[in-house]
Design brief:
With about 160 residues, the protein is an alpha+beta fold. It is built from 3 helices and 8 strands; from the N terminus they run H-H-H-E-E-E-E-E-E-E-E. The strands form 2 sheets. It has a 4-stranded antiparallel β-sheet, with no helix packed on it. Strands 4-3-7-8 form a 4-stranded antiparallel β-sheet, with no helix packed on it.
Length: about 160
């Protein structure tokens, strides 16, 4: 046997080794992706897409309402925060006797979402929030008064 035929007989083994390494690496990536999935996905995305025009109408009605939110978010440490929200109308007058609810979501991890009600305090609304984890939180505040609804979404880092 010549040296060229020995080299040619070794080429199929190189291909087998190459593809075996590729399959092992891909298998490892699949395993890691399954174990580290935090579940960030939109629930009922198709239904939300169908109702997109309703969402646009809600945004228009909220702008016409002219309500403004003045939010004071104060980190207290140890996963605690004081939140004060003043709700103002078009004329910068305090809106009293509204019901405020905060929906708190962790955008990087599912299963930690919760709601917090506000209490009235000095023409504004107050809540002391105890977060289950430190880090980034999305806070959606909804205000209800009579048949009117307004909302605002902010992101805060909890320490």
């Amino acid at each position: 046997m010549s040296d060229n035929s020995k080299k040619a007989g070794f080429i199929p083994y190189i291909f087998i080794i190459f593809f075996t390494v590729i399959f092992i690496i891909n298998g490892f990536y699949i395993y890691i992706s399954q174990k580290t999935w935090r579940g960030v996905a939109t629930q009922n995305s198709y239904q939300k897409g169908l109702k997109y025009n309703e969402t646009l109408e809600f945004v228009k009605s909220q702008k016409a309402l002219g309500w403004n939110f003045e939010i004071n978010f104060l980190n207290l440490g140890n996963n605690l925060a004081n939140t004060t929200v003043c709700l103002l109308d078009k004329d910068k007058t305090y809106i009293k006797n509204a019901k405020l609810i905060a929906k708190l979501r962790r955008p990087t991890q599912e299963g930690k979402d919760f709601e917090q009600n506000f209490i009235v305090q000095n023409n504004c609304y107050y809540a002391k929030i105890n977060f289950p984890l430190k880090g980034l939180w999305e806070v959606e505040i909804q205000a209800f008064k009579d048949d009117n609804i307004a909302q605002i979404v902010k992101r805060y880092i909890v320490q």
